[in-house]
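The following block was generated as part of the benchmark described in Methods. Ligand: zinc ion.
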Amino acid sequence: MGIKFCKPSSIWAKCREWASCHLVELGHIFFPPSCAACGEDISLTSEAVKTRPDYKAPLCEACVLTFTDLRPRCDRCGLPKYSGSICNFCQKITDQLGVTEILWQQIFVLGSYEDCLRTAVIAGKRPSGEALVEALSKLLLNQRPSIQELKVDAVIPVPMHWRKRWVRGTNSANIMAKQIASSLKVPYRCSIRCKRLKRPQKLLSAKMRATNMADKFYVRGNQLTGKRVLVVDDVATTGATLSAITHCLLEIGATVVYAAVLARTDDVTNHVGKR
Ligand SMILES: [Zn+2]
Ligand SMILES: [Zn+2]
């Protein structure tokens, strides 16, 4: 009977795993893990929450319930709907034109851009809110229908002009894209670039937003040609930014484009088809 010896590298890996696990536990005694949204101590989280697939998100039970929007949404525009797979506005456009103006295949939305989720998304725009954006991205991944079933080849963030990013110190879309790409085990790409800094979208009407976005972006390289791409951003209002990026990606030969956002303004006057 032979004695099995572990390779030194595997012994070292096991030691490192044991040490990191116990150091984390020791650290929790002095610095209890807190909710990324409200700061509540989450070391005493109930077993019911611990068994949920999104438990790893550093959020307390109350915040997970607050941010999880279970209202059915339109696959095309992301607005709440009452029946069918698409909303009345999208159906009207499809019936009248035979086609829909929305270029992406499907949009995934965590919830409405209001109340607690709005506060959390705004907090996530600061460098101190990166853990919160990661936690919200994990919740978005675990929403139904699931992004995990799309079989995308790459995840890309909506880019931010370097000057704006320099002032803000972070870009929530980048944090989201990295988190989602790592969970899906697909590459994170920064292939979309801003040509120039445009006027802030929030100051413009729905029609002006589309014009403001025209020719704003370009795709660098051909890594996304023939690929299934997921574009992510923190907020969608009219969808003008996501539409402009989807247009660029389809132009360079991306097979299909999906969109995912943490929050969507549920005002029908902002519908993409109403531009
Ligand atoms: Zn909380
Ligand atoms: Zn719709």
